Amino acid sequence: MVKAEIIHLVLFLTRAVPLRRWDELGTLDREVALYRRLLPHLGSISVLTCGGPAEQAYADRLGGIRILPNRWGLGANTFSLLAPFLYRRELRAATVYKTNQLDGAWTAVLAKKLYGRPLIVRAGYPWSLNTRRAAGRLTLKGRLIAALERWAWRNADKAVVTTESLRQHVITWAGLPPDRVTVVPNYVDTDLFRPLPDVDVEPGHVVFVGRLAPEKNLAALLEAVRRVPGARLTLVGDGPLRAELEAQARAHGIPAGFRGSVPNPDLPALLRRAAVFAQPSLYEGHPKSLLEAMACGCAVLGTDVPGIRDVIRDGETGVLCQTAPDEIAAALGALLADEERRQRLGRAAREFVVEQFSLDRAVEQELAVLAGVSQ
Q1: Rounded to an integer, what distance in angstroms lies between the CA atom of residue 151 and that of residue 217?
Q2: How far apart are CA 310 and CA 288, in angstroms?
Q3: What is the per-residue pLDDT across 179-196, written as a single tens digit (0 to 9) for each?
Q4: Gap between the Cα atoms of 139 and 42, Å rounded
Q5: Per the CB 3.0–4.6 Å rule, which of 8, 102, 140, 312 could disulfide with 318?
Q6: Which DSSP helix (H) or strand (E) runs through 61?
Q7: Which domains does the chain have, with CATH numbers?
């Protein structure tokens, strides 16, 4: 087995998501935390990003991880196809490639075919399935995505997914042998996201953190809050539905505040004061914000859909409900009315996340995957 300290890893970032975008969303520190922790165990780590030379401004925050930017000013799609040639020297010097998501994984597959290095293809969510869910049917774009996705899976030396249900999907849909697909869940910095004593929970305060997009089902959450006396909602994040959701709140007098993007290190203070964290999505991959709320000891309410039901054990670590406004309102009202239950669920949620999704555990799992493909 190749020792971890001589592994030279190149991480291929998502096709059109540079480091700058992570910083704008307030998630840069969260996204790179794993690789900063991995770096002392490896020979080197480089990240290939579609962002331009200005990406080098993040070098200090990456703590020694090398940045390979798009210094030619190419479009994201063009760069994703040409990067294996433009960075041929760096890619030949690597010992392992890894993708951050499926979108753009073809760049890493091309590099593997050119230079013969082992490849780890990671997916935090089912790309083709989500495309089909969003459109309500299999579109031409969906077929192209499905073909690229299957091509990436089949060229992977190891496929890494975030949940067991996604693992079974990849095995069945892509036809991979079970031993080539492994689960490495999303992680939480449980030292940052943790309960603190003497923090006053604000009665009736419901918090959502995430993208304001159709799959998050936020119109239903707003309507549910409207139906629960004493409830008020804070939505953290941005997205294409923000203006529409703000208009809904104004039109119906719903007590809802829109905070926009908040830096990840600032979220624990907000989560600790929440009476309930709500995740009302129509579908998910493996929601990081839900795990972070649980790590803070927050009582969580989620819809009984893929991705969320993989995290919440109904009645043990949180509450599951259906996606309609009346179902969300009934579950939310019952949870807000029972402080003892919220405290019990919050304690169990914290214990569950520390046991299953800590950053320390993720580092161990990642090192095992890297060592396995480097043999």
Answers
A1: 31
A2: 12
A3: 999 999 999 999 999 999
A4: 42
A5: 312
A6: helix 59-62
A7: 4-187+358-373 (3.40.50.2000), 205-356 (3.40.50.2000)
Element (H, E) at 26: none
Return the pLDDT at 2: 41
DSSP summary character for residue 63: T
Please enumerate in sequence order all residues whose Cβ is within 8 A of that of 38, keeping only pairs 6 or more positions apart, or say none. 9, 45, 363, 366, 367
Quote the CA–CA distance of 362 and 155 in Å, as a whole number: 24
Q: What share of the chain is helix, strand, coil (3-state, %, to 5)?
A: 50, 15, 35
- Separation CA 142–CA 145 (nearest Å): 5
| Closest CA relative to residue 301, chosen from 220, 195, 181 | 220
Chain center to CA of 279: 14
The DSSP code sequence of 64-92 is T-EEE--TT---HHHHHHHHHHHTHHHHH
Q: Determine contact, residues 298/276, Cβ cutoff 8 Å.
A: yes
Q: Cα-flanking dihedrals φ and ψ of residue 279, to 5°?
A: -125, 90
Q: Is the pLDDT of residue 4 over 60?
A: no
Reference 323, options 341, 297, 305, 299; nearest CA is 305
Q: Cα(172)–Cα(155) distance, rounded to whole angstroms?
A: 16
Give pTM, 2 decimals. Answer: 0.91
Q: How far apart are the first and last CA of the chain?
A: 5
Q: pLDDT above 90 covers what percent of the chain?
A: 89
Alpha carbon distance 81, 76 (integer Å): 9
DSSP 348: H
Cα distance between residue 356 and residue 187, in whole Å: 9
Backbone torsions φ then ψ of 317, nearest 5 degrees: -115, 5
Q: Are 119 and 109 within 8 A, CB to CB?
A: yes
What is the DSSP secondary structure assignment for residue 345, as one 8-state letter? H
- Quote the tokens at residue 207: 């918090």
Of all residues in the chain, the percent with pLDDT exceeding 70 is: 99
Query: What DSSP character marks residue 162?
Result: S
What is the Cα 110 distance to its own chain's centre? 25
> CB–CB of 31/188 below 8 Å?
no
Q: Give the 3-state secondary structure of 113-152.
A: HHHCCCEEEEECCCHHHHHHHHHCCCCHHHHHHHHHHHHH
Instruction: Confirm if 196 and 300 have CB atoms less than 8 A apart.
Output: no
